[in-house]
Amino acid sequence: MASDGSDVTDAKCVLCGEQPHCLATHFDLCFEAHCPTSRPVVRVPLQVSRIVEVPWLGSYRIPAPAASLFSASLSVPDRLACLCASQHWNNFLNDDHDWDDCAYSQWRAFLKTATGLPDGSCGCGLSDPRTITSVSPKIKAVGLWQMRALDTITIELNNFSGINLLVDIRGVADGEGARAPVLPHVTISHLKNIYWKLEGIPHDQQRIIHKRSKQLLHEVAPLGAYTWEAFACRQFLHLDVTLQTGTRCGLQGFGGRRLAVPIEWRCRGHTISSRSWRAWQPLD
């Protein structure tokens, strides 16, 4: 028992470090004196984190400015090829903000060369791809690039009588075999002229609708300006043709004459005079 008493006497207080004669009594008094504080503890403000996120490509760290410059320099096909190369490339380049910048770059390049776009004087306008939230940034970039690059497309024209017309449109091949892109050249007026030849309905009585509700009003506006999002994953476009109820803004900038473009077309599945429209013929 003596050894037990000496052990207790030699024990130190964990609060003040002293060696009291009776540790139990001392601990209660020491706890009341030190632990329950009578004044609030001053909070130390959290320091701003100095950790900077740096892009990584595998085991290599790339400075942020260099990574941004490299990402902006890639075309859409090169970006897609890099994404498929490895998981490291996918993590490095598959960023929504970069895809949005890529889409906007494609849109600006299209606007620099497009003609016949609505200027807003009639109340109509085209949607900036950056304001469209129903489509992912990647799909927007791919759709805009496809719109500017596709040299062959198929359009299904559905009319109010239930007849479906499949119209193939392609660019005319040059001396080296390259074909002109279709969607920046083909206008709403061109489509109405094709439908007039096939069905005999005059231009001013036609109304072309995309996605069941989006009316393509401007005669000289490029088809791609309205329908670019439809070509992100395919080369097929569905349009409805109904009778026109009357609008004047559709003729904005239309002088009654369509400029010649390096595009040709043909119709498949037409029940009336089908043979005469199966051969490729110039778009006018």
What does this entry look like structurally?
The chain is of the alpha+beta class and 284 residues long. The protein is 35% helix and 15% strand. The chain has 10 helices and 9 strands. The protein has helices at 2-10, 23-34, 64-73, 76-85, 87-93, 96-113, 137-149, 188-199, 223-227, 274-277, and strands at 56-57, 60-61, 152-159, 164-171, 206-210, 214-215, 236-243, 263-268, 281-282. A hairpin with a 3-residue loop joins strand 5 (206-210) and strand 6. It is elongated and about 115 Å long.
What's the number of helices? 10
What's the SSE pattern? HHEEHHHHHEEHEEHEEHE
Shape: elongated
* Rg: 35 Å
Q: Biggest sheet, open or closed, and with what strands and sense?
A: 7 strands, mixed
Q: How would you write the strand order of the largest sheet? A: 6-5-7-3-4-8-9
Tell me roughly what share of residues is in helical segments. Answer: 25-40%
Overall mean pLDDT stands at 79
End-to-end separation in angstroms reads: 115 Å
